[in-house]
Amino acid sequence: MRQYLLYFLLFCNLLFFVSCKKDKLKAPKASFLVVNNVTIKTTALQGANSHKIVDIWYYVDGEFKGVFPVGSVMPIISNGNAEITLFAGIKNNGISSTRQPYAIYNSKTINLEIEPGKTYTISPEFEYNTTAFFYYADNFDLNPGQGSFFSYQGDLPPTNTKDFDMTKSFGGIGGSIYMTMTDSKPTSKLIQANAYYLPDGGAVIYVELDYRSNQPFNVGIIGINSAGGEDKRSVVTVNSSYDWNHIYIQLTSTVSTPPTYGAYKVYIEAIKEVNSPEIYIDNAKLIYQ
Fold this sequence. Notes:
Blueprint: H1 2-25, E1 31-35, E2 39-41, E3 55-60, E4 63-69, E5 73-76, E6 80-91, E7 99-101, E8 108-114, E9 119-122, E10 125-127, E11 133-138, E12 150-154, E13 159-162, E14 175-179, E15 187-192, E16 205-213, E17 217-224, E18 230-238, E19 241-250, H2 252-256, E20 263-271, E21 279-288
Parallel strand pairs: 1-9, 2-10
Antiparallel strand pairs: 1-5, 3-4, 3-6, 6-7, 6-8, 11-21, 12-15, 13-14, 14-21, 15-20, 16-19, 16-21, 17-18, 17-20
């Protein structure tokens, strides 16, 4: 009888031990975060608040947790107060395979009192870093060569268009640049009116654009040496977009590739590829930090 009692006690202890182990192995119940709307706050010198933030890179209490498209459900494994840091993710040079946090936007940090199983929905407003330097933020309300930061070259000069039709003017207000070409005049080109110093050595440099186009166009820079000679360097071919789109074009590696120059000009150039080319450009920004 005493032997059976001993076995029974051992069995109860084993059950208790297994039960405790199971409790310890249970994963904590997750909570969830949804970023359903993202905006940009700009100053007058920083131009329009247009953007193309596609992803959110997020940290919880300083630990990287992942990358999710805007609007996705992001898990949070934490209890109590949690510090959540968000970074705005972009397609670098408009290429899906080169997604990364945009270095010129500030991160956004929020503190949440986390309850297991609860979903938190937020709409963060990002801002440009205070260290970012804007050479210009051109909204093209003025014609190239007549007040904007660009002049024109090529066979057919770009023109300013002001139209309440949102397909022709960004947002249906103000002016946008219209570029077209013909068989006899197959090129159109915008070029920065003044040359500016751009730092090499890996400094973060970007051109931002809003655009709508039924054919590709090229964006690049022209390095200008001390004798006035020019070195034209293409950076990216921007694919057609039948709706207004925003692109972040990184100039860092192009500017830092030898030979480097004391001054550069940005250009936007198109060569006729379709029957009736239509390219609209707005809100050009040249920024570095």
